[in-house]
Amino acid sequence: MVIGISQSDSDLNLFSLRRRTTIPAAGTGAPDNDDSGNGEVVVDDGDRAETVESANLTSNVGENPNEIPSRSDIRFTYRPRVPAHRGIKESPLSSDAIFEQSHAGLFNLCIVVLVAVNGRLIIENLMKYGWLIRTGFWFSSRSLSDWPLFMCCLTLPIFSLAAFVVEKLVQQNYISESVVVFLHVIISTTAVSFPVIVILRCDSAFFSGLALMLFACIVWLKLVSYAHTNNDMRALAKSAEKGNADHSYDVSFKSLVYFMVAPTLCYQISYPRTPAVRKNWVVRQLIKLIIFTGVMGFIIEQYINPIVQNSQHPLKGNLLYAIERVLKLSVPTLYVWLCMFYCFFHLWLNILAELLRFGDREFYRDWWNAITVEEYWRMWNMPVHKWMVRHIYFPCLRNGIPKGVSIIIAFLVSAVFHELLIAVPCHMFKLWAFIGIMFQVPLVLITNYLQSKFRSSMVGNMIFWFIFCILGQPMCVLLYYHDLMNRKGKAD
After folding, report:
1. pLDDT at 375
2. Coil, strand, or helix at residue 377?
3. pLDDT for 456-478, tens place per residue?
4. In the beta sheet, which residues pair with residue 273?
5. What whole-number distance in Å separates Cα of residue 195 and Cα of residue 213?
6. 221: Cβ contacts below 8 Å, ≥ 6 apart
7. pLDDT category, 436, cuts 50, 70, 90?
8. Residue 273 phi, psi dihedral angles, 5° rounding
9. Which alpha helices (DSSP H) does 310-402 contain, by range?
10. Which of 105-114, 184-193, 273-282 has the lowest mean pLDDT?
11. What H or E segment, with its residue span, contains residue 480?
């Protein structure tokens, strides 16, 4: 509201506008054509001020529709002569405009619906099964019998030290390149096979074996990157010496130690570093990590265990019953997977990066927007993706291997390690994880074809989520659970 301006002042201001002017046609941003063809609209002195004022005020109202016009402005605002439709606009939910709009309200609605639906499921579950959480899920007397696995985990840094000694020896020209390759192969192979032997010889808990195998696989990937990168730097240094260029490299123990604990799988001499550690931020992330780990335990014990215990083998028995079990299991397994992803890739890796002042924290990309299976595998696990591209895919291309074969080799390496991560802690090799990862190769071709056919990111994303939620994890959980129960039954 205009304050301190009298009616006479307003009239004087309007009177000052009474001059010959040219105004653009409303809504077009360009002047309308008159009879003379010069593109101008000539307004009489009696209507000129009102027209100019109405156009200006209506334009201002369009910019800020919530602003209440002053008493003197109301005379010239929303006049019938001013056009109400000024341009070509799409409805908010039209296909061409749907992704240009803010969906914050719909997102809030989804959150409310999820809370309501899952709240009802929690109450129904508690009424049907009671409280199923056991202290043994977190710690039990059986965990004390897993000390060989803990001791094995403590010995894994020895392999990193052995790799450093090998690199120092070749730097001093004490051993040849062929001997270096042979020694690195022995060291890296032993680093992953030794934990496998320890787990298979001990009747350990599944989560203890899974933790050790995960640590062993990470050590193996780091050792391969360390050996491969140093080999490439030596080759560059030798070529630089022939060309009289300065390209020396140094084998630093400090760089190796930082690399082995840093949240990356690709070795390099130095990394981007942040200026300081945010201690309060680290504490907040640790609290979140504890909370979401508890949520995962609750879902596994309270939801997934009752479902799989009351199910049959998905490849045996009634087909419709198996489909019903898979669909019922798809939601809790999805929740657990999302919690696992958030805990490990966001919380834990960021906590580790903050403590080490590790700067490059692109541990994942927006894989939830993936429109093909290929995009998902490129974006959901960036440390492994960068390792695969750097040490598997492009080396294969440089050695003349076709692109398609190089992709299959990369998936083959991934399939082997997925099988080791699951089969070894379960003490059985059914190759379900291996088959599941290799099955991604035809899925990549199928989803790429469907994406090129439909040309719609929404269709491709829906297909990805269907495969991810329905065909993937629930089937894997049911297969391994029933095979594990059958193995224990035969052992008993």
Report:
1. 87
2. helix
3. 667 777 877 887 777 777 777 77
4. 358
5. 7
6. 265, 384, 387
7. confident
8. -125, 145
9. 319-341, 349-356, 373-379, 382-388, 394-398
10. 105-114
11. helix 473-491
Q: At what angle do helices 457-466 and 440-454 cross, to 10 degrees?
A: 150
Q: Which two tokens stand for residue 304?
A: 């997934």
User: Model's pTM, two decimal places?
Assistant: 0.74
Helices of type H across 33-172: 45-63, 71-74, 104-129, 141-144, 147-155, 157-171
Residue in the structure block whose two tokens are 């930082």: 258
Residue type, 308: V
Question: How far is the C-alpha of 202 from the C-alpha of 219, rounded, in Å?
Answer: 21
Per-residue pLDDT tens over the stretch 350-359: 999 999 999 8
Using CA atoms, how far apart are residues 476 and 425, in angstroms rounded to an integer?
Answer: 15
Q: Which class for 216: exposed (0-12), middle (13-18), buried (19 or more C-beta within 10 A)?
A: buried
How does DSSP assign 139-160, residue by residue?
A: --HHHHTTHHHHHHHHHTHHHH
> Rounded to an integer, what distance in angstroms lies between the CA atom of residue 28 and that of residue 259?
61
Cβ–Cβ < 8 Å for 297, 138: yes
DSSP 70: P
pLDDT for 358: 93
Residues 6+ positions from 379 with CB-CB distance below 8 Å: 364, 365, 366, 367, 370, 385
- Checking if the pLDDT of 204 tops 60, the result is yes
Give how far Cα 208 sits from Cα of 139, 145, 295, 355, 373, Å.
11, 10, 19, 25, 31
Residues in the chain: 492
Residues carrying an active site annotation: 418
pLDDT bin (cut points 50, 70, 90) of residue 33 is: very low
The two three-digit tokens of residue 355, written as one number: 């403590």
